[in-house]
Amino acid sequence: MPRKKSTISDEKSVKATEKEKKEKKTETATLEKEVSETSKTEILKKEEVKPEEKEEEKKAKNYYEGVGSRKTATARVRLYTKNKDILINGKDYKVYFPLKKWQATIEAPFEKMKCSGKFGLTAHVVGGGLSAQAEAVRLGISRALVAFNPDFKKRLRRAGYLTRDSRMVERKKYGLKKARRAPQWSKR
User: What is the reported pLDDT for 56?
Assistant: First the structure.
């Protein structure tokens, strides 16, 4: 007889667990509905915001960017169609590069494309000497002009303004005074 009692209590516990399972299923179903509804509304909100963000990005991005480098100098150039000033590290390029040949190096891509005075730019230049910085800016300007109009690429490439000059300083070797300079040889 005690076995029957245990089976009755087992049946009660089975029924109780089935009820709990049903309750859990209904809870999870309601939670899933809530989550799906909130995620749908969030997605709709995100979709509504995305076109506005894209318009703002278009308004904010009214420049064409190019990066140039030469030896250890690197230049980040932003080309503007509205502003006509040429600023390098916050200074006018004629102040930053006092020599005429450096100024001519920077103006060269504009003169080649016959658009000098139509663009303005800002450049952030780091490293190297002034000559290397001027050539880095020239490469950055050329790349930004190609980003502005891909038809410029052929003429700039032919002029050599889109080629990165790969020459670097040769390393010093041990046993020598410089990269190749040997110490003075004495006969005795």
Answer: 47
